[in-house]
Amino acid sequence: MISFKGFEPTGSSPIYLQIIKHIKVSAVSGDAANGDELPSRRSLSAMLGINPNTVQKAYRLLEDEGIISTVPGAKSILDISPEKLASIKIELLQSTALSAVKSMIEMHITKDDAFRVMEELWDKEEKGESK
Amino acid sequence: MISFKGFEPTGSSPIYLQIIKHIKVSAVSGDAANGDELPSRRSLSAMLGINPNTVQKAYRLLEDEGIISTVPGAKSILDISPEKLASIKIELLQSTALSAVKSMIEMHITKDDAFRVMEELWDKEEKGESK
DNA sequence: CATGCTGTATTATTCAAGTAATACGGTTTA
DNA sequence: TAAACCGTATTACTTGAATAATACAGCATG
Q: Is the CB of residue A68 less than 8 Å from the CB of residue A32?
């Protein structure tokens, strides 16, 4: 079962997008494996205190993307091809790393300076990661 | 005069935010210097084909932040303290670099892999920069 | 002085996105 | 069989943000 422990909708980002990202990150990071079950729409919505349709929206989009699979009468499961998994990894990277690079170049920052900053941020963040 | 040549509101991001960012980037990158004049609200709005109040909103927020200065009866000018300029630089970096780092750590990517990707993106982006 | 510019404030409108309410039909299981 | 779950579809509501319309007052310059 894909875990939503510690997951809680926060910030201004739409709940359904946070759910989608959580599942994508779980897959990419290896926290979830192919074939793992997802919570039912209703149970997850009850868990989060939101409307079932919000979860449904997330699951539907994930299914459209070919990331999860829903067999009628059974549970939804994680179901990604290796190629798709790789492309999601790239997509997640691009959505952040690429925009960071673009904006730093726009600011006329030298590559050396940029990477110095990035490395500092990395070390600081990694230290704060004690899940 | 701070240049808006080549500037055109694009994408889904609000126009007034794009104006704000353009001015901030101009300041940080060195394209604009302290004391440089900004286009009047009305002229810039005419230039962009938008409502003057949209420009006013951007200018007002910039003034609230202590980035520009408006003397009554004269033009608005760029007016930032060195400290403020440094803090904007950091702010712009954090808004992109930090979130990139966070998301890569979340994906369980190794630091080496991450920086390999970033470097690749950097070189590709820099090459495409022929302003 | 008068025309035309400036910045400012208040209010309205528009629009889209997110979320929720509700209902339908099917499957499992006790 | 009946209760409890499941996924799905349609529709409605709400809210907030972005932008625009309009009006007011001051300064500059011809």
A: no
Decide if A91 contacts A98 (C-beta within 8 A).
Answer: no
Tokens of B63: 């003034």
pLDDT by residue, tens only, chain B of 131 residues: 999 999 999 999 999 999 999 999 999 999 999 999 999 999 999 999 999 999 999 999 999 999 999 987 678 999 999 999 999 998 998 888 998 999 999 999 999 999 999 999 999 999 887 54
CA B90 to C1' C5, in angstroms, rounded, equals 38
* Topology (CATH level 3) of domain A15-80: Arc Repressor Mutant, subunit A (1.10.10)
* Per-residue b or e along A55-68, where b marks 16 or more CB atoms closer than 10 Å to that residue's CB: bebbbeebeeeebb
Closest alpha carbon to C1' of C18, residue: A14
Question: Cα distance from B72 to chain A (closest Cα, Å)?
Answer: 31
Burial class from Cβ neighbours inside 10 Å (0-12, 13-18, 19+) for residue B104 reads: buried
B108 secondary structure, DSSP code = T
Query: Closest nucleotide (CA of A13 to C1')?
Result: C18
Check whether residue B44 has its CB closer than 7 Å to nucleic acid strand D: no
Positions of chain D reached by protein Cβ under 7 A: 5-10, 17-22, 26-28
Question: Does nucleic acid strand D have an atom less than 7 angstroms from the CB of B41?
Answer: no
Q: Which tokens hold the place of A32?
A: 């979830």
- Closest-CA residue in chain B for A105? B126
Give, rounded to a whole angstrom, the gap between the first and last alpha carbons of chain A.
Answer: 19
Residue B9 CB partners (closer than 8 Å, separation 6+): B15, B18, B19, B48, B50
